[in-house]
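S.,

Sequence below, as promised.
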Amino acid sequence: MAITAFKRPEYLTEVLTSLKETSPSDFTLFIGAEPVSADVIKICKSIDFLPTILTINSKVLGVRENPFQTMKRAFDAGFDLVWQLEDDVVLSPDAAALVDAFAKFDRRDEYLCLNLYNPSSWGDEETVYASKGFNALSLAITRSQWDKFFIPNYHSDKRGWDWSMIGLLQRTHLTNLTPALSRSHHIGRAGGTHYRPDQHDHMYVNNPWKQDKSISEFKFKP
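The prediction came back faster than expected:
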């Protein structure tokens, strides 16, 4: 797993609690922490439910470069799949089960990645389908996808790396794998780089996501 952390310890605590409740197995947690909050760094150093490799950046890398460098460290360490998360994105209880199912899906490398957030989320808990949409609110990326799609395109749009991936999807045949019912949710209402509270409420408050603790049997429908 690759998690970026900045300056909002209250959100990071909630994110880590949700991650622990997914019962992730066989993951190592790579954290890229910006050097601005002693409270955030203290939280990162206290994680005890997963093996954790903490990097405190020498300077603030920002919302584009910190995720890139953190994911790169995980791939460079030899892992074949990286689950990317940010410090204001909470997870459904079966999110790790979805990532495990994606890892075992034999056609996974035909897609850009697994996108755990769906901005048009609806009530079908089992379906994972092909979509042209993209949102960077929790992704699972294989080494093949990283090398083939992310490395060449990540920095291609000055507006942000999510725009880079959106552009790639728009100009190619590629699609994402996306759960019909979101397995992640954005809680960063205040203090973030890109959202004001009113914008956040408009985009996220009413978008449904799975919150009960049942485990779904996922059905991939490319």
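Residues 2-221 form a domain with the Spore Coat Polysaccharide Biosynthesis Protein SpsA; Chain A fold (CATH 3.90.550.10).

Coffee later?
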